[in-house]
Amino acid sequence: MAFSIGLFLFNLINGYSGQVAVESLTYSLLSVNMTTWVMLAYLLFDVHLDRKKYGSSRQAESLLPYEIGHLYSYTRTSHTAKFYAHFLTYLALGLLTGGLLFAVYYKSSAESGVLLSNGQ
């Protein structure tokens, strides 16, 4: 979050001219590494349901060893409020951190002569 906010604000100022404040290797491999974790989670938690046995009608759900509605009720009743509190806290911290990183980087690059009016 802090990485993306800082990069977004930096690119807003420099007009998306291709100048990046971070290593391009790290930036390009970030989505590759994160995609691997998503695929691993999908493979570990995927459940196959036989459609011939359980997908023929609405009454076929009673044949399942569990009720599908109970899988959602636990999350809905116990984790939703905690999730929103954590999400909003980390969102605020990410915006603050990204903004500060951008401000420090932009101020240092502006005073070093890269962005001065004389072009040095």
TrEMBL record:
Record Pfam families: PhoLip_ATPase_C
Keyword tRNA processing included in the entry's annotation: no
Record-annotated P-type ATPase C-terminal domain positions: 1-110
Keyword set, alphabetical order: Membrane, Signal, Transmembrane, Transmembrane helix
Ranges annotated as spanning the membrane: 25-45, 83-106
Domain of life the protein comes from: Eukaryota
Coiled-coil residue windows: none
InterPro entries given in the database record: P_typ_ATPase_c
Signal peptide stretch: 1-18
The name this protein goes by in its record: P-type ATPase C-terminal domain-containing protein
Organism: Favella ehrenbergii
